[in-house]
Predict the structure.
Amino acid sequence: MSSATTAPARNGAAGPRPRAEESGKPPERSCVRGARTAAARRSALVPIWYLRLIGLLNLAGGVSLTARQEVSGHNTGQFFTPFMLFAGYGSAAVAVFMAMMLARRKRVAWWVFMGLCGGYAALEVWWLSEPPLRQHPFNWVSTAITLAVLVCAAAGRREFYGKGDRTNPQLALAVLGAGALLSVLVGTTLVTAVGSQSASVGDRVWYVAVRLTTLSRDADLTPNLHVNRWASTGINLAGLVLLLAVLYALFRSPRGRELQTRQDEDRLRALLDRHGSRDSLGYFALRRDKSVIFSPSGKAAIAYRVVGGVALASGDPIGDVEAWPGAIDAWLVEARDHAWIPAVMGASEEGGTVYARHGLDALELGDEAIVETDEFSLGGRAMRGVRQAYNRVRRAGYTTRIRRHREIPVAEMAALVEAADRWRDGQTERGFSMALGRLGDPADGECVMIECHDAAGELRALLSFVP
């Protein structure tokens, strides 16, 4: 069986959309709806590419002192720049991170962007009411750019459909509170160590709190407190790290906690009984740390686990090949709705082909090694090393015993499990495609146990195989 992994061709490629004649609506109305959808998709790309461009410009401003001074002069004089154009590494990191989250179609990222951009646009409109600022055409251009991006983001709101974890707001608040407290404590200690001693404790705390959130000059914050330049920069970086941590906690994808139930496992076992011989990795779909999604007909299923925002499936879909597309479509819709990136590891050549038809890219990794036991022989020069190893073990008196798990008495199985736990070095190793994650479960009676005993009959090694 040829193995392949598949990865999304684009940003979590969604499942195919129904054609006009399949939607049950008149073609004219479908055409209008399709035109609106295409317009919304184009509008949704505007804030994404705007933030990418702003991130690049801010990065250039961070590298170039002249550009940074120019932008800073604009924003502190009678000019103001468009949304997020502040020139610096910190603003570049925030802009790029926001662009990444919007590109993942996360709904909460859209809300944050609308709040920040809308608030900045309101400030720009208010600034234009000031006669000195109103006189400069540059300010009108900046306001027009900000408003245009805001309108495009609003027009493309339906394209940002990725669901977030319900606990994200609480986690973000917890990260903000704990991170801010820790940053102020560490920053105040640092300022006390390297700053002037004439300032009061309150002035030092105030300096650190403001320095975490602004780039103002020290003289504008606390005139009587002089802090080492590197300490001041370090506090600024701590503020940036805290901001990115809060945004990550707010934007993180759901973890996929809805693991397969007992009913799901029973349905999977029924599919494996009928179709499991197609894929040697099929039995590993029964790992209980995986989620499972079935095709509409229930004749096929995909087992996956969410890892770092990736809906990672393993092996081919379980079940009837003709029902695979239905299971894949349902899985892709689930991934799209939760802003997960769909990916597969260890698919067969046939499975990789079907996945590729649904918008994923297939990468060939190699062939699965299969030993035909009835044709295997230790004879010949090529097998000399294996033959010598076999003879050495046999002369030492080692023997093996092969049994199905269901044939092993309960007390004996408990001893085998205890030996496996004792012999395993370090943390329990859990693979994904080729590890079951459990040993001795009564539901796995068809699994095969191989025990190795020495000449005295003591257990020295064991190995378990799925059916």
Remarks:
- Residues 27-63 form the longest helix (37 residues).
- Strands lie at 2-8, 291-294, 300-307, 310-314, 318-319, 341-347, 360-367, 399-404, 448-453, 459-465.
- The radius of gyration is 31 Å.
- Residues 1-27 have pLDDT under 50 and may be disordered.
